[in-house]
């Protein structure tokens, strides 16, 4: 069982291990600075499938099977499969679960799904309900564009605050035994709405949620930002990152400028790749944390990281009806002994 | 009390935050965008004029007659560029210069038709083809009707 720290943070008594991860990326992500840290890079955004939705499912399944194969675990041995994505009715996750044939719990936290999955997996493992839990998430630039914005071939100007949805998928296998980085605490966030209505500026909509969760995490644990080697938010982008730093300083009174970065700024070369404010999408944090940071932790270059994955909980309908964009952030601290 | 989300007033904290955001976030470069739109829009018009002249000289049409096939050719070019995946790349820089002329209309129809071909002919291509261009048609017809009405009452 876990110990509750403060209001929203939990500390598992036996911190679960992330024993394996699997990451697959699209061709555009494969040109970015983190390309060597992904298990597979596709050469075609369709991944040999007929539609972008099928391609996303194929990527998610590939990430899951890769993750399991690395530690020689078959899907039959896994107790729960937790997954979610950005598409309506989380179809990538559902169709992928059909292939994996593992008892499935669908989750949705928009782009915060990676941290939500890790937190829930930690609860299931530490609570004694499971020995092995597979958590995965995916996003695809083209399937997200056509659902949230315009047809992919439609010619429009993009605002400087617009972000580029990452194509790819990441999976993590959480276990009660083994070796690897451990999930030591997690903070479940509350939904925050600061009145931002522009879906082309999601970083600004999500930054207050990220700040609120970080402030709560540090208050609950009694730690400061300096406790971690690196703090990463999911996909705030260039302007969202600045807003998060400002909000953390004014609300929590701590300085993030030293060891804080945003996954949305790490995955692409923002100078050379035309992505405007940075990356977004579930795969943004999944690829950076399960791919890049996980390997850095295994190599011993990073000991303690805090993942604060952020999600915008709007839909096309809510935006068109004039509602502002509610956002959420979950924090998961991952430590290597 | 109104339940319309558009009319819901912002709280003090929300107001403060939206002000902070608008301070921090850069405005789109209107000057540069307008200049590029002007140049590309002009270029589209020059190409259109070229086709008009070709039809006029090659087929012996009058200037008015040559207009229709010239527009049709521009639509063809816009559609072709969309199909080849080039239109959105050019429009990223050209902006309104490419979107406002008939090429933009062609792009919006063809892009939607291409995008939804996997949903089938009836529910995909057929019904989604005008998802972006539909507003243009609706309000174009309404405006034309109102102008026609004014013309009929006051001028005729």
Spell out the blueprint of helices and strands.
The complex is a heterodimer of chains A (337) and B (156).
Chain A: E1 2-5, E2 9-12, E3 17-25, E4 40-41, H1 52-70, E5 80-85, H2 91-100, E6 104-106, H3 113-126, E7 132-139, H4 141-148, E8 164-165, E9 168-175, E10 182-187, H5 202-221, E11 230-233, H6 237-251, E12 260-262, H7 263-266, E13 279-280, H8 282-298, E14 304-312, H9 316-320, E15 327-335
Parallel strand pairs in A: 3-4, 5-6, 5-7, 8-13, 11-12, 11-14
Antiparallel strand pairs in A: 1-2, 2-10, 3-9, 7-9, 10-15, 14-15
Helix pairs in contact in A: 1-2, 5-6
Chain B: H1 12-24, H2 30-59, H3 63-83, H4 87-94, H5 96-99, H6 102-115, H7 121-128, H8 133-155
General description of the model:
Chain A has 337 residues and is an alpha/beta fold. The mean pLDDT of chain A is 95. In chain A, 33% of the residues lie in helices and 23% in strands. In chain A, strand 5, helix 2 and strand 6 form a beta-alpha-beta unit. Chain A folds into two domains: 174 residues, Stage V sporulation protein AD (Peroxisomal Thiolase, Chain A, domain 1, 3-Layer(aba) Sandwich); 154 residues, Stage V sporulation protein AD (Peroxisomal Thiolase, Chain A, domain 1, 3-Layer(aba) Sandwich). In chain A, the strands form three sheets. In chain A, strands 1-2-10-15-14-11-12 form a seven-stranded mixed sheet, sandwiched between helices. In chain A, strands 4-3-9-7-5-6 form a six-stranded mixed sheet, sandwiched between helices. In chain A, strands 8-13 form a two-stranded parallel ribbon. With 156 residues, chain B is an all-alpha fold. Chain B has a domain of 97 residues. Chain B is built from eight helices and no strands. In chain B, helix 6 runs antiparallel to helix 7. Chain B is extended, with a radius of gyration of 21 Å.
């Amino acid at each position: 069982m876990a110990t509750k720290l403060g209001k929203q943070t939990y500390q598992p008594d036996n911190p679960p291990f992330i024993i394996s991860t699997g990451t697959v990326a699209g061709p555009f992500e494969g040109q970015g600075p983190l390309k060597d840290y992904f298990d597979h890079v596709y050469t075609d955004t369709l991944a040999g499938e007929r539609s972008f939705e099928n391609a996303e499912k194929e990527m998610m399944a590939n990430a899951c099977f890769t993750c399991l194969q690395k530690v020689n675990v078959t899907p039959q041995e896994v107790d729960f499969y937790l997954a979610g994505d950005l598409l309506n009715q989380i179809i990538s996750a559902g169709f992928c679960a059909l292939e994996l044939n593992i008892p499935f719990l669908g989750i949705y936290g928009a782009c915060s799904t990676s941290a939500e999955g890790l937190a829930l997996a930690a609860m299931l493992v530490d609570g004694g309900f499971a020995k092995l839990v597979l958590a995965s998430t995916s996003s695809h630039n083209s399937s997200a564009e056509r659902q949230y914005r315009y047809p992919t071939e439609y010619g429009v100007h993009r605002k400087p605050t617009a972000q580029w949805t990452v194509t790819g998928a990441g999976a993590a296998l959480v276990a009660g035994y083994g070796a690897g980085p451990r999930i030591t605490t997690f903070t479940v966030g509350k939904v925050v709405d600061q009145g931002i209505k522009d879906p082309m500026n999601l970083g600004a909509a999500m930054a207050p949620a990220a700040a609120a969760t970080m402030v709560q995490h540090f208050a609950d644990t009694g730690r400061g930002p300096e406790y971690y080697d690196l703090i990463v938010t999911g996909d705030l982008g260039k302007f969202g990152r600045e807003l998060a730093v400002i909000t953390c300083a004014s609300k929590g009174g701590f300085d993030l400028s030293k060891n804080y970065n945003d996954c949305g700024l790490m995955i692409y070369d923002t100078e050379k790749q035309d992505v405007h404010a940075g990356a977004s999408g579930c795969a943004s944090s999944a690829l950076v944390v399960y791919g890049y940071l996980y390997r850095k932790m295994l190599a011993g270059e990073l000991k303690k990281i805090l993942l604060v994955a952020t999600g915008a909980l709007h839909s096309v309908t809510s935006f068109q009806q004039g509602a502002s964009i509610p956002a959420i952030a979950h924090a998961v601290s991952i430590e290597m002994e | 009390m109104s339940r319309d989300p558009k009319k819901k007033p912002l709280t003090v904290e929300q107001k403060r935050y939206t002000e902070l955001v608008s301070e921090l976030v850069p405005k789109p470069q209107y000057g540069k965008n307008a200049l590029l739109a002007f140049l590309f829009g002009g270029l589209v018009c020059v190409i259109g004029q070229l086709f008009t002249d070709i039809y006029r000289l090659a087929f012996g049409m009058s200037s008015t007659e040559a207009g229709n096939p010239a527009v049709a050719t521009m639509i063809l070019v816009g559609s072709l560029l969309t199909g080849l995946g080039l239109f959105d790349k050019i429009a990223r820089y050209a902006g309104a210069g490419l979107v406002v002329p008939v090429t933009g209309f062609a792009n919006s129809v063809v892009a939607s038709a291409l995008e939804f071909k996997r949903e089938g002919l009836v529910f995909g291509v057929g019904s989604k083809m005008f998802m972006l261009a539909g507003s243009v048609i609706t309000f174009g017809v309404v405006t034309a009707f109102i102008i026609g009405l004014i013309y009929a009452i006051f001028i005729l």
